[in-house]
Amino acid sequence: MKIMHNTLLYFCLVAFAVLPVCTDAFSAFVINEPAGMEDYKNQEVTLDDATVESADSFGASGSETVYYISSEGSSSNDGLSQDSPWDFETFNGHKASDSVYLFKRGDEFRGVIVKRMQKTNIKFGAYGTGTKPLFLGSLNITGWEKTSDGRINSEIRDKVYEADLSDAVFGGKENVNGIKHLFVNRKLMTIARYPNVSSPDKANWLNIDEKRGDYKFYDEDLKDYENTRNYWKGATLRARTYSWQYSVREITGYNNGVITTESEKTPWYPIKGWGYFMDDKLEELDYPGEWYYDGENSKIYLYPPEDTDISDSLTEGITHDNGISIYWKQHNVAVRDLSFKHYLGSCVNINNSDNVVVENVNMQYCGKGVYIYNSNDTEIKNNHIDNSFATGISIGKHENIGITGNQITNNGMFLTYGSFNTALTQGKGINSLGSGALNISGNSIINSSYSALEIGTDGATISNNFIQGSLLNINDGGAITLRGNNIKITDNIIIGVYGNINDGANGYAGEDKTSKHGSYGMGIFDYKKMKNNVITGNTVAYARDIGIMVTEGEKNYEVSDNVSYGNEVQIQSKKGGSGIKIKNNIMYVADNIVMGMGKYAFHKGLEITGNPENLVLDNNFYCSPYSESYIFYGGGYDLDSFLHFNGSHDKKSGSCDVRFPGFEIKSVVSTLAEDDFEDCENSPPVLGGGTCSDDITKTGSASFMRESATSIKLKNEIAFEKDKIYNLEFDSYAAGRTTYQFRIAKKLDGEFIRLIPESNFQFKNKKQHHQYMFRARRDLTVAPIFLLKDGDDQQLWIDNFKLQEVEAQQKEKTKIVFDNEGLKGISSDSALIVNKTDESKSFSIPGNYETLDKQGGDMVLEPFKSEIIVKTGAGDVRYTISGYVTDSESVGISGVTVSFSNDAGSATTDSSGFYSQSVSQGWSGTATPNMSGYAFVPENLSYSNISSDQPEQNFTEKPQDIRHTVSGYVRDSESAGISGVTVNFSNSAGSTSTVTDSSGYYSLDVDSDWTGTVTPDIENYTFDPLNRSYDS
């Protein structure tokens, strides 16, 4: 049997309207999100500053003196008891070694803790019962009045307020800082900008149209918006100027759509497509939540958020630099149980001071949480650092630093707000430079604009950290990025590495304007030419690019005992290097269909490029349930073929036998090409590049044989349609191992257009069944082709070929769980179980799942370890029987059980009447629908030796006669029931009867239109009435 359709390709002309530049234009502009990513991207995490604590942080030791400070204290007090505390100003005037300063819990202190240079052995802590003492680097702004400033648009002027800050006390010398950020009721406001956004963590970009010099660019939309010469001069340009970088610059000139910026500080030249916006201009204050500070006139303007009464609101403007500065040989200092908020520089600044401990401190809304420079023997432990504008913890030159047990959340999430005039890669959880012992352990780092950890310290140890949500705003880096040598990265959990290219700011990669960057969100990533780094025992999941990457020129790397799950590429060694060992890793390839999500055709297990010297691949384990090719080293292979063509590697490695279909076919829309090659004389084969063969010893029947051609191509073109789903299936047999690439592509106007990513098929010296489902990227009329990539022998047989358009539903393929609650009701093909705690943890694997080494039941995971589980029975090649159960009006019936004989289980219809059941290849049996009160046509469906999916296996409710019950009692004259009475039901069609029970009761079901008489009969009795008559 053959079917070949020549279908038409339709083109649509769409009129595109100009997008109004309003709010959050790109906040929902997300394409091709990886499966599961939304669960681990931008998770809401807040700092708990309401915890009540008690007990003094420190007591006096040796020659130390304890001083108490309260917001209600006084300079006339001696500060030596809780009953006689100092005020904050008196405290700041006291500078002595061997001092313990305790601040009253629940109190607030606006300003900074001043430097105590060369004063040693000082402790800063808390006393009393309440929340942590709070230090604020912001002004409390009051005295708001409606503005009459003519620079503000008259249409909204009556909604804008101003306040005079002439008498305010600012941080910095001579008011150098002014107001840099404004909060209303503890929420960050937006500096007056164009185009508008609802919040500074939202994206709404303009885009560069054309470079006009090293420091100039042109934007047609900007010319259309405001064309007054030098209108934008003095405002601030905030731009994403490359994949991994923002630039913040003063605008020095503007004319007719051309922006000019200061030249000496611009590291990247403007390239077409990159996003930008402009702020710090009063005339653009036109949207709720925007504000502007006029330093020349010491005035601040605010358009309050909707439904906000500014007279009854807390309004705070950040102005101070650092919360506490431990500076210049101020050694042996401890900071404990305090809270710092609203500082431009750092909440805690440690500079040229050794032996400092910062513990149990809250830090919020500072440029950096902690900054350490040229300071040694320092511990930063058990703190919570939240919403740093630039970096959570930044470490410069140092020796022997410990960063342990901290929560570091929401790093650099306010787009470009980490700087006011520089280039920056903002949003790192922890970054370090220089050499010296560094231990980063046991931290939780959630939501980072860029890397969670960027480590440039040689000899650092990175262990037992939990990292979730990295590269959320910019691109090209790792959740852990390595810039040093001899680093040990051990037992870390990394989940959700985004590599943002989707918010509307991603421009061209170069001035030739030929391509844009893909997503480069990597789990563990290193820069070129590093050496002697060890990456072991880590878990990396849901990276949009590479789980673990070893890049060009590295030497003596070890990548061992890691679990890489559901990344686009699990492990990659790129562009050479030498002495690289990749061993004992588990690589789970969770998908083989990537719709433009990254730069690779489809998900991969291991990829090696550049022929590294002395490469060691040993004892790895691969699992690729959806793709036949998952090892890429000069070609694309499964493990069996890889060992055949590259026999010197990975001899002790293994692979799972798990296979899942990926999609669930609901119905076949149309069959585009089909051939069983049984009648080639009368009907030519649909494939070209070979001949029909009557040799049934290869595939079990007549087939198509390719003998010498290097490609097999469908003879006729198919009109594929964008976003439609297609199913390709066929059987194969090869005389030797052979790899073919399946390609649907065409050259149009000089450009090579791919409908789908290429996929490799592995053909072997045995009969195999192949299935590949894909979603079309675009409309394209083309003939699919198989291209020979590797092969021992030119002979290949193909049978039972079909290509269909189908209605299908993508299955839930992966899931990540952290506790037994997450395992309840699990239905995904696989799951990654993670213990992100520092204690061993028990898990109960559901009965229909098992580990990759076939274990089930209860399991204990050690701290910061993980385990992959898959559905049981997945080792079989399996097919899906599916269809609908409907009533006579074609409406789906839910809750119908469809039972499959021979131990194949059962399925229950959903709200649309749809059911599906997976069965093993070769299964034979029946499928029978059942539901109380229903009968169906057909009563069942029979199957024999299943070898493909069976969609549209439908059942329809059988119309049934409606029956009624005729019932009553036969009694004597004293109303006692008479048993044994025969009650006859008779009409022209015949008669039937029933007998009364011990109470005299009878009943009988009859058809709804039954007509006849009912007559009781028993010897020696007569009845009144003699009978009863019924008419329909």
Output the keywords.
2% helix; 1032 residues; 4 helices; 14-stranded parallel beta sheet; Jelly Rolls; mainly beta; 93 strands
Rg calculated over all Cα atoms: 37 Å
- Which structural category fits the helices and strands? mainly beta
Query: What composes the largest sheet?
Result: 20 strands, parallel
Ranges where pLDDT stays below 50 over 5 or more residues in a row are 1-35, 593-600
Please give the share of residues in helix: under 10%
Helix tally equals 4
What number is the mean pLDDT?
89
Describe this structure in words.
The protein is mainly beta and 1032 residues long. Among the domains are: 63-134 and 322-386; 140-318, no CATH class; 663-810, Jelly Rolls (Sandwich), CATH 2.60.120; 816-870, Immunoglobulin-like (Sandwich), CATH 2.60.40; 878-957, Immunoglobulin-like, CATH 2.60.40; 963-1030, Immunoglobulin-like (Sandwich). It is 2% helix and 43% strand. It is built from 4 helices and 93 strands. The strands form 16 sheets. The protein has a 20-stranded parallel β-sheet that branches. Strands 2-3-5-25-27-29-32-36-39-42-45-48-51-54 form a 14-stranded parallel β-sheet, with no helix packed on it. Strand 18 and strand 19 (258-261) form a beta hairpin. The protein is globular, with a radius of gyration of 37 Å.
